[in-house]
Amino acid sequence: MATYKIVLFYGFTPLAAPESVRLWQQALGERWGLTGRVVVSRHGINATLGGTVENLKQYVRTTRQHPGLEHIDVKWSDGTGADFPRLSVKVRPELVSFGVPDEVEVDERGVVGGGVPLGPDEVDALVAERDDVVFFDGRNAFEAEIGRFKGAVVPDVRTTRDFIEQIDSGTFDHLKDRPIVTYCTGGVRCEVLSALMRKRGFEEVYQVAGGIVRYAEARGADGLWEGSLYVFDERRHVEFADGVEPLGSCVVCSAPAARYENCGDASCRTLRLACAECTPAVTAGRCEACVAERPGSFVPRPTARPGVPAAV
Ligand SMILES: [Zn+2]
Ligand SMILES: [Zn+2]
């Protein structure tokens, strides 16, 4: 029986011809029957892909043959073979959409001016030595609802684009002379975020090397990570130890919950936390915003019950 895995990696390196890299990556993905998404930009490549372990190994080996991508750090996790609906390979102005493509500078060593990368031992040592360390969440705010570093500052951002506005508004100016440790899922967002923060006057900026995935895998139930990690694939969330208590709570009954479900209206992109018991009601029902904006019109997902449901 085939063993399915998921690979997660990024590489910041100048790519002079992103479109030809896209075509090459598309061909590789198709050749080895992979699904998931790849973003290519003139700053590098960012990928999350699922497939059989043999095919993914072939894909990674071939991708590493590209100049500048020889040393990409690939994170492996278990997959099911149905973790992503399709293969999507796109060229974008940025690997991560902060909305400042011309501000991000990349050379052969990666993002120019980024925060100092810290491995798990270095993160723990810094926090042990200094009492003013600030963990700064580099993800969308809803992701932090189910898991975050101990005492983290969670910016009120709906998308990565909101970071610059929040930082420029002065919301975090009081943290400018404290040691800041940025973190995100696999590290890619913080490569850029840490550089943008340093440019904006944050004096001592670090980044968790390899992101939450690397840190929490090394620490399990111990360490400074708390709760679950949100992932955008069909797993929805990942825990790094048995018996982790969910940090979030169900939108219906407030019971502990770690799993985000789509609103029952297919035209709505709201994600809501639901416990196992309330999941059928949440996935069949609508969120309050839908009901307020489109009271009579309902685009049911294939799983929805007949009729126009009330808000859940
Ligand atoms: Zn519930
Ligand atoms: Zn909705």
From TrEMBL:
Residues 129-224 form the Rhodanese domain. The keyword Protease does not apply. It is an enzyme of class 1 (oxidoreductase). It comes from the Bacteria. GO terms for molecular function: oxidoreductase activity, acting on paired donors, with incorporation or reduction of molecular oxygen. The keyword Oxidoreductase applies. It catalyses: uridine(34) in tRNA + AH2 + O2 = 5-hydroxyuridine(34) in tRNA + A + H2O. Keywords: Oxidoreductase, tRNA processing. Its EC number is 1.14.-.-. InterPro entries: Rhodanese-like_dom, Rhodanese-like_dom_sf, Rhodanese_C, TrhO, TRHO_N. It holds the Pfam family UPF0176_N. One of its GO terms (biological process) is tRNA modification. Belongs to the TrhO family. Catalyzes oxygen-dependent 5-hydroxyuridine (ho5U) modification at position 34 in tRNAs. HAMAP family: TrhO. This is tRNA uridine(34) hydroxylase. The gene is trhO.
